[in-house]
Amino acid sequence: MFDKILIANRGEIAVRIIRACREMGIKTVAVYSEADRESLHTLLADEAICIGPAPSTQSYLNMERILTATVAMKADAIHPGFGFLSENARFAELCQKCNITFIGPDAGIINKMGNKSEARKTMMEAGIPVVPGGKEAVHHVEEARQMAEWIGFPVMIKASSGGGGKGMRISRSMDDFDANFKNAQLESVKGFSDDTMYIEKYIEKPRHIEFQILADQMGHVIHLGERDCSIQRRHQKVLEESPSAAISDELRHQMGEVAVRAAEAVGYVNAGTIEFLLDKDKNFYFMEMNTRIQVEHPVTEMVTGLDLIKEQIRIAAGEPLSVSQADITIDGHAIECRINAENPSKNFMPCPGLIKNVHVPGGNGVRIDTHIYNDYKVPANYDSMLMKLIVHGKDRTEAIAKMRSALGELIIEGIETNIDFQFEILSHEAYRDGDVDTDFIPKFFPDYVR
Asked: Is it true that the peptide bond before 243 is cis, omega within 30 degrees of 0?
């Protein structure tokens, strides 16, 4: 087992990893930018080292500085968390060259599955159901137009290296296709330095269902059930739950087997997520694979009792999975709300600033993952997420009631947040009835979508 792990991240996920390491008896090193000098992860780690100015390109995305810090602090592994360098194949490769364990899959798998068009092609060759569309990537609007005509409108235009809803556009006819393709491609170039795109059929009003998988170095692969991530804003997740109200035991078994087969097809190792679209007729299609821990991993932990960060660390250290597929049971229902520093009434404008007062809810089945505290200054340089509020109940009805209660008790003063917006979602009749899809927010909360 590792003696010391450097966490190449910030915020609540860095805090989450530090706590898991502490329970395992592993020392931790926090890296921080000048803007994060007083952040909780910096204060909680055994050691901390500044890696540069506030801009992420000069700190959390600076591979050389992070690797230099790892060597200087004599850490033998790096946990990348999510975002930043977590799915960067070059970074994983550099870790290997420096004899530092990267807690995640190897560079080859990240490269293959991180590129969405390549992942799609790989899954098609492995017999995994994918959304109908082109097998090859496209770079020019002329060839993309031909592919869209062949697939049939509406189509989804996607950046091969995209993520977080960037580089995606829906086109419903040839009239708007060229503009949508060029805008999505431009967004991809700006966000990912990649102009590679692909075109697929747009599935109307699907559910976004993802399966958590774990795979060790001995070839054992299991799934931990599904998460329903259908509540989204501009393709970015707002609220997640497990299990899904739309998934029967039979369908869970079927989709879980496909998720495991997809991971086996690429020789996957560590924690990962197979993401599917589920249409109204319960047909499911592979969409993409995330080769890292997910923001929403706590809901899976709550219903399975597993600690996914600890499992990641054990796998990276060469240990076998602590459980088999037969050991996995789904107990009760869990919901996670992402609490962000943003103003929903102003097009979700980010709202950094000084937090003057924080009161967090508690009680049976209530969990808070956060890095904020009284008098903490939220920097303007990074993602706006402040906290993940997670609840667990005996069933979905109890979990909803518990989340409504927790949101009603949560106080964050000094800055604007989306707490009230989350409460509105949980209070909506359609949500309580489980009648959700990826168009839920545009349909029921049009004033918040512009």
From this structure: yes
379-429 pLDDT, tens digit per residue, is: 999 999 999 999 999 999 999 999 999 999 999 999 999 999 999 999 999
Burial class of 362 by CB neighbour count within 10 A (0 to 12, 13 to 18, 19+): exposed
CATH 3.40.50.20 residue ranges in the chain? Answer: 4-103
Q: Is 8:81 a contact under the CB 8 Å cutoff?
A: yes
Write the pLDDT tens digit of every residue in 270-312: 999 999 999 999 999 998 899 999 999 999 999 999 999 999 9
**Could you give the residue range(s) of every CATH 3.30.1490.20 domain in the chain?**
132-201
Residue type, 305: G
Q: Structurally, what CATH architecture does the domain formed by 4-103 represent?
A: 3-Layer(aba) Sandwich (3.40)
98 touches 71 (CB < 8 A): yes
φ, ψ of residue 14 to 5 degrees: the values are -65, -40
**Statement: 207-448 belongs to CATH 3.40.50.720:** no
Q: What is the CA 63 to chain-centroid distance, rounded? A: 21
Please say if 292 is a catalytic residue. Answer: yes
Q: What is the pLDDT of residue 234?
A: 83
Catalytic residue among 207, 227, 292, 396: 292
Tell me what the pLDDT averaged over the chain comes to. 95
Omega cis (within 30) before 154: yes
- 3-state SS class at 252: helix
CATH 3.30.470.20 segments of the chain: 207-448
Vertex 280: Cα angle to 448 and 211 (nearest 5) = 80
User: 132-201 belongs to which homologous superfamily?
Assistant: ATP-grasp fold, A domain (3.30.1490.20)
Q: What is the pLDDT of residues 46-95, one digit of tens each?
A: 999 999 999 999 999 999 999 999 999 999 999 999 999 999 999 999 99
Q: What are phi and psi of 225, to 5 degrees?
A: 80, -175
Q: What is the pTM of this model?
A: 0.91
Counting beta carbons within 10 angstroms of the beta carbon of residue 126, is it exposed (0 to 12), middle (13 to 18) or buried (19 or more)? middle
**CA pair distance 207, 197, nearest whole angstrom:** 23
